[in-house]
Amino acid sequence: MKTDAIIIGGGPVGLFAVFELGLVDINAHVIDILDRPGGQCTELYPEKPIYDIPGLTVVTGQELTDKLLDQIKPFGAEFHFNQRVETLDRLDGGFRITTDAGTVIEAKVVVIAAGGGSFTPKRPPLSRIEAYEGKSVFYSVRKMENFRGRDVLIVGGGDSALDWTLNLQPVAKSITLLHRRAEFRAAPASVQKMLTLVESGDVSFKLGQVTELHGEDGQLRSVTVKGPDGATFEQPTEIMMPFFGLTMKLGPVADWGLELHENLIPVDTEKFETSEKGIFAIGDINTYPGKLKLILSGFHEAALMAQQAYHYVYPDKKLVFQYTTSSTSLQKKLGVK
Amino acid sequence: MARITYILHDGTERVVEAEPGMTVMEAAVKNSVPGIAAECGGACACATCHVYVDEAWREATGSPEQMEEDMLDFAFDVRSESRLSCQIKVTDALDGLVVRIPEKQI
User: Hey, is the C-beta of A130 within 8 angstroms of any chain B C-beta?
Assistant: First the structure.
């Protein structure tokens, strides 16, 4: 696939970058690890009111995302969800990115709008858990077959924990669901299905929290569980899947050879370009003297970034600055003329 | 003003003066008390400002609402005295409050 600009991150700033780039005839592809646009706005606080978006007295994270999607609709950006950009290669006159889902895109400029980084599953702070990860401790299911005939312990009480309890139950030898309380913060239909499986004896449900892992060479044998009464018991299992929500990690961006400062990407305040020409960083992920991590700052950064990006995408053309209020050509692009 | 004592996991005590209306999380972050991550900035959306409320203060701080109780599912080593400090509003009645910070926020 080839395009003009790759935007890494589909949060509010990444979305508005589509708009600013679109105004100057730059097509964009947006890549995000989540399954929908909005970034932190929709993942962390969809219902939470935001009061400092200029012109909008109050707007929720979800509403702002919906409004931005509406605003960028005329530019037809292509979205690639559920994937994380792993590698960034330099080409003659551009870049090539590859995602963990195998998507390969070439573009003239790259815009990193990755916020606090990519959302990754939280790792419970259990001693030596790293040694088991990928062998007998998993945070996601890539291939259901790997769970066939195994004893699986699922920890948590949210949608992910319940979805995988239901999905793996027909495949696994046994499923034990472990949660700290008998209430579940998940879709009522999933909870009902799970309870039915518990009643029929197809799923075992236990109350408690894991305190220790036991096994060798990355292979789990059992875990120690502290029950609600404080007493502990051993739970034998071959596989554990902890679901404690998501946290943000910088991820592979750190390995792309860009200058970093305390996990942020330094940029200039004229073009918001990184230490490498053609690679920009806007929004919460960048840093410069006086930086404020506000959505509105990211919007401003997107506008200035687009001006410079134009020179890379159209090296022979001169960019004439225009207002959307008066320019017929901009209004045509927006589909209002 | 309310004086809040944060007992860190290693036993160190940090006492801060908090203004009524702030949250126990904000008072900690503003005074650089270590061990309170508050990744989401107080939206009750991350469980990284987990604290244990001292026995004597359980009643005064109240019990978690549904949203907070749900979010505590994402914390580690949750106990009956567990709270998310972004959901405890400082009032004059909480002058002297003591909370313990867990070993790790996840």
Answer: no
